Amino acid sequence: MSFSLIITIIIFILISIRQWLPSWLRIWHIMSMGAIAILLMGEVSFKSAFTGVDWNVIAYLFGVFSIAAALYDSGISDRMCDYLNKHHPSISISLLFLMVFSGITAAVLTNDAAAVIGTPIALTLARLLKIRPTLLLIALCTSVTIGSMLTPVGNPQNILIAAKGHITNPMSSFALWLIVPTVFSMLFAFFWLLYVQKKWGSPCQEHADLPKPNHGSTWPAYLSVGMLIIMILGDSILISINPNYHLPIGVIALIACLPVYCFNRHRKTVLKEVDWPTLIFFVAMFIVTGAVLASGDLQTWLGPKINELDHPPLLTMISFWGSQLFSNVPLIEIYLQLLTQQSLPTMMLLSATSTLAGNLFIISAASNVIVVQQAEKFNVKPFSFWEFALTLLPITIVSLIFSYIWIVFVMS
Predict the structure, then answer these.
(1) What DSSP designation does 409 have?
(2) What is the pLDDT of residue 229?
(3) Cβ contacts of residue 326 below 8 Å, gap of 6+?
(4) In which residue ranges of the chain is pLDDT below 50?
(5) Residue 111, class by beta-carbon neighbours within 10 Å (0-12 exposed, 13-18 middle, 19+ buried)?
(6) 21: alpha, beta or left, given left = phi > 0 and alpha = psi -120 to 50?
(7) Rounded to whole angstroms, how far apart are CA atoms 277 and 274?
(8) What sign does the dihedral 375-378-384-387 (CA atoms) show?
(9) pLDDT tens digits for 312-326?
């Protein structure tokens, strides 16, 4: 076993027991220390580590974080919650609103954007309802994950599959194959979380230390959102026509966030509110997973099975459990390099299982990490590793089994 794989396992263990570690130790600290250890031990060179980072994803996240910060600064979260508060919503209505809004946002703007935009909304709703923020934050995580499964731009792994999986018409293919599992999983998640809330049920006065929005000009943020949606959807259509007409998603996000920095007089506040710790987390994660891939441990463990990676049971097992160890984005990047057969059913099953794997552990999906670190930025303790896992375990099992049956036995 290589040193880099040992470090990866230690990172996973430390994150799983973080609730018993010092409160100042955040997820991005743990991942960063793992990356530094790998670099100091010479597992990868500094040049290889730099080139191994997917700067396209980093640029995309910076652009999305900037747009999300500008949206919050414009007061969108307050306006949404004020509207709900005027109509005296119940917990069930608020939960349904949050999940539908987050799921649609994830499908259109990707899961990471939905996580950033949805966190302050979830925290504000929890304060209005006088309940623990934990339920709504977990609901945000699972709805963002499930909703992102529906489109080729819903999450970074879907973008990789659409770009490298030889899918001729990504938008219609994802919608046709995955709309039923998405709707079923979202409905089951809603009713399960409603049941969980009734069990928790005690009022709570804990509230987030949310900074007051400046309520400045809203049009730069809305223009950025519109540009991001149009450019992502347009790029997806262009890819289906001719793969050579592809604009990297990082470039799209950087262009889309330009109105925020060019026309918003609170641009310094927006830049300050960008989630820099999460960007550092991603850089460190790419270094760690790149070192594991370079070590050859995975190829050795797979052995002759490496030629059977398109078989549904093996694909489901590896993509699901591999996402727990490496997170789903690096896992898909590795898996696509090892696959020899890239049929449409294989790509759809790979997308569904790697995406739904994000509902098991915090580290399984980047959007979960974003929600945790956004909440902690607002001085809220979101949820523990095991509280998240145990709450979402039924959702994970049911949605995964249903999706597998639908794709393998109904659609194929």
Answers:
(1) I
(2) 82
(3) 8, 289, 292, 334
(4) none
(5) buried
(6) beta
(7) 9
(8) negative
(9) 999 999 889 888 766
- For residue 356, the model assigns a pLDDT of 94
The ranges assigned to domains in the chain are 53-411
Whole-Å CA distances, 193 to 142, 199, 383 = 10, 10, 14
The gap from C-alpha 341 to its chain's centroid, in whole angstroms, comes to: 27
Tell me the two tokens of residue 274: 């960008």
- The string of DSSP codes covering 274-312 is S-HHHHHHHHHHHHHHHHHHHHTHHHHHHGGGGGGTTSH
Closest CA to 217 of 90, 76, 358: 76
The pLDDT of residue 207: 56
Structure-token pair, residue 365: 């999906």
Q: Please list, in sequence order, all residues whose beta carbon lies within 8 angstroms of the beta carbon of residue 90, skipping any fewer than 6 positions away.
A: none
358 C-beta neighbours (distance < 10 Å), count = 31
pLDDT digits (tens, 9 = 90+) for 54-77: 888 788 889 988 888 888 777 776
Please check whether residue 162 is in contact with residue 170, taking contact to mean a CB–CB distance below 8 angstroms: yes
Tokens representing residue 351 in the block: 């997308």
Dist. CA 277–CA 284, nearest whole Å: 11
Check residue 214 and give its pLDDT: 60
- CB neighbours of 83 closer than 8 A, spacing ≥ 6? none
d(CA 24, CA 234): 43
Cα–Cα separations (whole angstroms), residue 81 to 94, 98, 114: 9, 10, 16
Q: How many CB atoms lie within 10 A of CB 112?
A: 30
Q: What is the pLDDT of residue 36?
A: 93
pLDDT digit string, tens, across residues 144-162? 999 999 988 788 788 778 7
**Phi/psi at 216 (nearest 5 deg)?**
-80, -155
Whether the model pTM is above 0.70:
yes
Query: How many residues can be counted in the chain?
Result: 412
Residue type for position 25: L
Spatial separation of the C-alpha atoms in residues 182 and 164, rounded to whole Å: 23
